[in-house]
Structures are given as C-alpha cells and as structure tokens.
Specification:
mainly alpha; rod-shaped
Length: 142
C-alpha cells in the first residue's frame, strides 16, 4: 500500500501516542477495561481499520484503472493507424512500397507471392511500424 509520506507520518504519530498512553496507564486501569465493552470497542476499531484499508485499495485500483484508460485513449488519439481494415492494408502496402527496409523480408515475399495475411497480422505489423516511427506522419507524407 502506497500512502503519501504525510499520511504515514500522521499514522505513526498516532500509534506512538497510543503506545505512550498504554505505557502510562496503571495496570489495574487496563485490566478494568478488559470487559465485554472493551472487546466490542476493539472489534469496532478493527472493523473501521479494515473498512478504511479496503476503501483505500478500491480508490487506488480505480485511480490506476482511470489512468490506464486515459493512456489508452491518448495512444489511440495519437495513432496514425486507420480504423478500417481496408485502409490499414492500404497503409501497410504504402509503407512497404516506400520503405521496404522497415518491413520484415518474409512479409514482403509473402505479398509478392500473393499470400494473404490476416487483419490481426496487419494490425500487429502496423503497430510495430508506428512504434518504430516508420509510418507517415500525415496522409501521404513520410
């Protein structure tokens, strides 16, 4: 669990104060507090701590999920890969014609021999080419 340093320090001070209060309390006073009410209070405190830890974990998980979605959306906005399968194939063929050295040789051989590659393979190749910076920055440009 990652808490900001100020929260950790605050919790540490609270625990230190509780420890000091227990040390200063006379033994008889502590024993008198060990009745049924003390057990209920302890259970209530445990439940509150557990609920807060669970809520903190859920908030953290939700924050990470939102950040991942935002990153995915930003990547999609920056992507130069068309959404339509036929346009993706045309883009790949264009890159192969302009920059054949960027495309795996086995793929160019397959295209020359008329072999069909799947849309998934086209997507994967275009994604790799985009990551390498080999896709045109704008339509018709390198």
């Amino acid at each position: 669990m990652n808490c900001p340093d100020d929260e950790i320090e605050r919790l540490q001070r609270l625990l230190d104060e509780i420890e000091e209060a227990l040390i200063r309390s006379p033994r008889g006073e502590l024993q008198a507090e060990e009745g049924p009410q003390a057990k209920r209070d302890a259970e209530t405190a445990r439940r509150i701590v557990a609920d807060q830890l669970r809520a903190h974990g859920l908030r953290k998980r939700e924050k990470v999920r939102r950040e991942m979605e935002q990153a995915r959306a930003a990547r999609a906005r920056r992507s130069r890969i068309p959404s339509e399968p036929t346009a993706r194939r045309e883009l790949l063929q264009s890159v192969m014609a302009r920059r054949p050295s960027m495309v795996p040789q086995g793929l160019t051989m397959a295209f020359r021999e008329g072999k069909e590659i799947t849309d998934t393979e086209v997507d994967s190749i275009l994604q790799a080419l985009e990551n390498l910076g080999a896709l045109p920055s704008e339509e018709g440009q390198e």
